[in-house]
Fold Regulatory protein, FmdB family.
Amino acid sequence: MKKRYKEHRIKWDEGIAVICPECGEKAQALLSWHSLNNKQKEPLAFLCPHCGLRKTYKELQLHKAYIKFNCPECGNQIEAKRPYSRRTDEKIRVECNYCHHTFTMKPRIEDKQWKFTYRNDGLKRDEDTGLPYYYQERVRGNLFWAYNRSHIALMQDYLSSDLRERVGMSTVARLPTFIKIKKNKELILKILDKWLKN
């Protein structure tokens, strides 16, 4: 009897498996909406069960202050920016480059999520924390990755099935072609088995 694939969903409450920047072990990047739905006072963004590193979204938040206006004395445009930092300045002192008058003004604050690392090294990274996914490997020149164990199980079920039923634009419908072609099937299934045993 042929094995039949039946559509199922990824469990997002597992978060995304990432590499901890402290110990290099498997950690969990939690999704912001999941933390907020659990009504936590300080929603966690990151948690490592090995070394205990924990970061909340508030701890990862950086602020960028900027001022842009015309000098009331001479009409010259004044623009000042402060790089991203943890503090929010109430007032910033700026000087006009043309008439050299100084002003103390309240800046506009732009919030940005901080990332542990930002490198363009070809690895798939979590969008909120910037940490590389734990489950990723090169397969014949292509980057093969998975969010978490639930995602691995979903791909394993799909690839090992003879009959594949799916509804509309599902997760498996968006799998890259190199994963679905027959010549890579055994190699991909070996990788998925290795990840599940890990």
Summary: The first strand starts at residue 4 and ends at 5.
